[in-house]
Amino acid sequence: xxxxxxxxxxxxxxxxxxxxxxxxxxxxxxxxxxxxxxxxxxxxxxxxxxxxxxxxxxxxxxxxxxxxxxxxxxxxxxxxxxxxxxxxxxxxxxxxxxxxxxxxxxxxxxxxxxxxxxxxxxxxxxxxxxxxxxxxxxxxxxxxxxxxxxxxxxxxxxxxxxxxxxxxxxxxxxxxxxxxxxxxxxxxxxxxxxxxxxxxxxxxxxxxxxxxxxxxxxxxxxxxxxxxxxxxxxxxxxxxxxxxxxxxxxxxxxxxxxxxxxxxxxxxxxxxxxxxxxxxxxxxxxxxxxxxxxxxxxxxxxxxxxxxxxxxxxxxxxxxxxxxxxxxxxxxxxxxxxxxxxxxxxxxxxxxxxxxxxxxxxxxxxxxxxxxxxxxxxxxxxxxxxxxxxxxxxxxxxxxxxxxxxxxxxxxxxxxxxxxxxxxxxxxxxxxxxxxxxxxxxxxxxxxxxxxxxxxxxxxxxxxxxxxxxxxxxxxxxxxxxxxxxxxxxxxxxxxxxxxxxxxxxxxxxxxxxxxxxxxxxxxxxxxxxxxxxxxxxxxxxxxxxxxxxxxxxxxxxxxxxxxxxxxxxxxx
Length: 573
Hints:
The protein is α+β, with helices and mostly antiparallel strands. It has three domains: 227 residues, Pseudouridine synthase, CATH 3.30.2350; 120 residues, RNA methyltransferase domain (HRMD) like (Transcription Regulator spoIIAA, 2-Layer Sandwich), CATH 3.30.750; 190 residues, Rossmann fold (3-Layer(aba) Sandwich). The longest helix is centred in the C-terminal third of the chain and has 15 residues. The radius of gyration is 26 Å and the shape is globular. The chain starts with 6 loop residues before the first helix and ends with a strand.
């Protein structure tokens, strides 16, 4: 009835406008920020080389590319590759011999040097993907030399022209941070706020491998660099600048290429397209559900929620991406405003742009089918930030007994069943939510019955009864809402999670696992772990393993912040 959206239109393999130079031996590309230079996930290849090869093949051209250079994923700018094998030796020799002149542009705050500054540091591997400044002779430490001069200034902000004499991992980022001026937007090394990592490979000069003549390739300065120099981070002002807004949305969409083009057994058609400040679009969340978008606006009238001009600008832009329709959800900052989550002014039943979706839309998550409802209040029926945790549950559930507490529409239970769980029980106080859970089992092709059951009751009462009858499980999923209330009990995650977790831990067999989750911006990762260890002591359980599960890549946290969702995989003795 609706047809499929065209993923190749929304997420093209490549854009010819990215090509800066091409001849018989070389091709130079202006790599956008957010595209990795090399594949990090073989199941979802979204790197520059794979995409360029697909682009060449689609046009009937030789897909050969020789790779001699890389940029960090969030760094933009010039990347040079060879188009003929006989060009490799010359280019490799120039890069390895540091005879290629590589220039960068970096946006920073607080640079006091005048004239050229030369940074010399010994860099060594650190933790969490970071590098650190070490010392000469230290194991793994290598000398990095960087030359820096000011290209432009405005107030305390500056654009630096940077030339590297060596090529070490995170060289510019770490050396500038060590000099007291981290690159703006740098999540790893503490840069000031910006819409992206403000580091750009502006030029490369080398000797052409077959013509034996100098070749200099330049990339134009991205517009956001000059804007940041003039005004700093735009924040919500991005919604008043159509050009900046379009660039921010395009960048967010581009970063979801691997998800948008996923196919086969791991196909995923439900994911986050824009994650608020983490995508330089504060107050805006956009989720993709197969052929439709759901846009959620937060904040007061002066920001995004209720600001008609900004809202219209965003919705028109989303409507132009190529989806069937756009649904709107509005979430004021004051929680007390949300008296009825089905209010038509907060969550219109029909789309505000494009055509309406069926009452139930079937989406895929890692190849598993789920049903969602886009016009049925503020929630759609599937929490997309739990995708990685559901995948972990599926992998770990073979022949296991699984209890899913606060199950909502039983997505975790379906994932466990698809992973071969011997038994699942989905517990939730909402009968309609569990009915949707039964529907999700049917969509996934799993029969319910004695092996997969549902308990429509208060979770606290169910846990107490389960303890009395001696019920135990190999895996228990605890994912309560931040706030909930029933006729008998009120739950607030910030104060009550520890006691609830202690009770639930008593249901886990020795050697079994508790997947503990909380989605509350007021509970940090360290505090959450502290609550869980205190709960384990109260329950008399030894913690054999506690591992933070990652938030999916489509949920980037704001600069300097943490994800709202925290999920800990805890094996108990």
